[in-house]
Amino acid sequence: MSLSKTTLFITALALFSLNSGLHAQDAAMARGQTVYMQVCFACHQPTGLGLPGMFPPLAGSDWTAAKKPDRMIRMVLHGFTGPVTINGKPFATPAPLMPPQGAVLSDTQIADVLTYVRDAFGNKASAVTPDEVKAVRETEKSRAAMWTEAELQRIPVE
Question: CB 3.0-4.6 Å disulfide test: which of 3, 31, 72, 150 passes with 112?
């Protein structure tokens, strides 16, 4: 094979691989949006803006934008209670912020919904994989309590 044919072949292969990855991400986003509209939207709203004084926004949130999704995975698995700081501002609510979903959502569903949340509403964070969710689920398998902000702040996200 000549150099130009080899270059063309490698380029085509790279584009195919990139395109396949994009389709996989698109599929995860679509599945994630479905889970979001079934489980999350009542509190966080279809826009991701939440309800002031009751449920925090996901749109533009430093929690959703974190480099690693480990805190968000834990919140979905076990729930979250108490006050939280969003983008440097306190967000207090009279109710627990989020019920646990780990018993009803699979690792793939959690990965998909977090992929959706981290890339919707103006957010631009990386996708979450089922393997990441599975690893956190395994690490935290003995946990029964909802998370608090103080506990989650000890989980590295950089």
Answer: 31
For range 8-23, the mean pLDDT: 44
Instruction: Supply the Cα-derived Rg of the chain in whole angstroms.
Output: 18
3-state SS, residue 109: helix
For the chain, the distance separating the N- and C-terminal CA atoms, rounded to the nearest angstrom, is 45
Which percentage of the chain shows pLDDT scores above 90?
75
Can you give the three-state secondary structure of 81-116, one letter per residue? CCCEEECCEEECCCCCCECCCCCCCCHHHHHHHHHH
Q: Which helix (H) or strand (E) holds 91?
A: strand 89-91
Tokens for 153, please give them.
Answer: 């702040």
Output the six-digit token pair for 148. Answer: 């608090």
Percentage of residues in the chain having pLDDT higher than 70: 84
Measured distance CA(54)–CA(27) in Å, rounded: 31
